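If you are new to this repository, start here. Below is one unmodified record pulled from the training split, so you can see the exact layout before writing a loader.
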Amino acid sequence: LLTGGGEMLLNVALVALVLLGAYRLWVRWGRRGLGTGAGAGEESPAASLPRMKKRDFSLEQLRQYDGSRNPRILLAVNGKVFDVTKGSKFYGPAGPYGIFAGRDASRGLATFCLDKDALRDEYDDLSDLNAVQMESVREWEMQFKEKYDYVGRLLKPGEEPSEYTDEEDTKDHNKQD
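And here is the target side for that same chain:
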């Protein structure tokens, strides 16, 4: 059995471990909601942007949101446009996935390709992708839907944008078509 001093030392060590674990959880999860997580200092101008109103985008309009001309960063996956500004560390001009900013990222995500070859300058209907690649696109879409704000659709050539009411926009900002 432990003596009084050894038992106290064990209790102090256990309390220190519990506090360390709680701190690590707070850093990982709790600070996210406060907007003070890792890298937030560099993202503060983007973090202060108001939530984007729902609208539809042509490819040309989407390209304006690449993080270099505008602090807001958008990208499209499977015909849906997401505001990935809070992930500017990844999707900003210097980020590892910055190539997708302001673009339709579907083909690159489906084929796991980060080259310019994975990007099309015209609307990409993805009709040449195989079943596995299309499933990958749908999985990426679901991940983006969970993590980022859905802000509208990517328009096909000649397609007219939808008119979104303020009620539709605020009622369910993440509603998918």
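Two things worth knowing about this chain: Confidence is low (pLDDT under 50) at residues 30-44, 172-177. The beta strands are 74-77, 80-83, 149-153.
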